[in-house]
Amino acid sequence: MPLPPDFTLLQVAPELETGGVEQTTVDVAAAVARAGGRALVASRGGRMTDRLLAAGGRLFAMPAHSKNPLTIAANAGRLIRLVRREGVSLIHARSRAPAFSALWAARATGTPFVATYHGVYNARSGLKRWYNAVMTRGDVVIANSEFTRAHVIAEHGVAPERVIAIPRGVDLARFDPAAVSDERVGALRRAWGVEAEDRRVKVLLAGRLTRWKGQALLVEAAARLKAQGREDFLILLAGDDQGRAGYRAELEAAVAAAGLGGQVRLVGHCDDMPAAYLLADLAAAPSLDPEAFGRTAVEPQVMGRPVLAADHGAFRETMRPGETGWLIAPGDAAAWAAALAAAIALPAETRRRMGEAGQARARRLYSVDAMCAATLDVYEGVLEARRRQPRS
Asked: At what angle do helices 368-388 and 20-34 cross, to 10 degrees?
């Protein structure tokens, strides 16, 4: 059942800076455009705006990132006007605050509404649970993993048939080792100050600098290795602090205090992640809280790199311990130090075989094409269900 010829999708996302929500927004916009539809995005915008436009999408800039109730109400008005002016067929919300605006616009215009539950949100009060539940009030809830799907059903009492798990997808053309030139890897080496003759095992942690992503834990594990006399590794922390200057300063102070200036580097944001994974020998995903999907454990596997990941959340779906990498006790610096030591000590050929196993599995299960096809199937199903509803 193809999309209608006049199909117009409106995705509502806080911003288009960097991360899984943003990448999935762009990926789905591209898929809709390829299928002959129109792909609109309401968002504050950001560094990924050019990718959206190149993919055939259109940006309608608004403060969709704001949690201010007055701004949310104003955004609802903006979205209502946009839906009517552009003839939007379906609204897809990708975060909680803008989901309120999107839901109000959907109800005011009679437009089908879908939301993707991208994270396992904490709820320590009834008010916060109500806030989170906005993501479940549409025609269908998309969960980005089976872990997230189980959480939505248990947390909000949603009927299982209304929650569909669609794992995030990786662009297999972009994340293809054969498509990454030596020049691209060399450019990153120079930018990060990694000499070509540096034979130390390189471990890459890719992710914005925020405490729950576990950078401080990895630094503590590295300090334990250093105290044991090991210096045969280099840890690269790639990611923006996004205004968290205090946390970045804390990491830098911890590196200095442990004498890790030669073993740990904060290299900032990276626009060429495929090359970054090829520069590395291993990837690390030490998230302190469970990841709802965790692209930073899947992308390196697609690039043929074994992964050390925290033993919780969706990592238990995307990883095969002993086969594609290691699952390690969350937040346990001693366990992480031991796992790092074991991974670093492995022969390069063993790491290569693990990387190949992870690559084969990840390419089979987590392609962006499969994710987009499943998402478009959801859109088609929602539209068909709406057509079948008796008119009042």
From this structure: 70
| Residue 178: DSSP 8-state | G
DSSP states along 117-166:
E-S-----SHHHHHHHGGGGSSSEEEESSHHHHHHHHHHH---GGGEEE-
pTM: 0.81
Inter-residue contact 16 to 47 (CB < 8 Å): yes
The candidate with the shortest Cα–Cα distance to 121, out of 108, 111, 131, 106, is 131
CA distance 341 to 332: 14
Which phi and psi angles does 208 have, rounded to 5°?
-60, 150
CA distances from 221 to 33, 257, 329, 331 (A): 46, 13, 12, 10
pLDDT tens for 175-222 read 999 999 999 999 999 999 999 899 999 999 998 899 999 999 999 999
Q: How far apart are CA 189 and CA 202, in angstroms?
A: 11
Give start and end residues of each alpha helix (H) in the chain.
Answer: 20-34, 49-54, 69-86, 96-109, 126-132, 146-156, 182-192, 215-227, 245-257, 273-279, 295-302, 315-318, 333-345, 348-365, 368-388
For 116-157, write each residue's pLDDT tens digit.
Answer: 988 777 777 888 888 888 999 999 999 999 999 999 999 999
The tokens of 316 are what?
Answer: 């238990």
Nearest CA among 333, 325, 291 for reference residue 308: 325
Buried b (16+ CB within 10 A) or exposed e, 227-259: eeebeebbbbbbbbbeeeeebbebbeebbeebe
Distance between CA 352 and CA 347 in Å, rounded?
Answer: 9
Which residue carries 């990387």 as its tokens?
A: 355
Read out DSSP for 38-56?
Answer: EEEEEE---TTHHHHHHTT
- Give, as one character, the DSSP assignment of residue 60: E
Cα gap 269→264, rounded to integer Å: 16
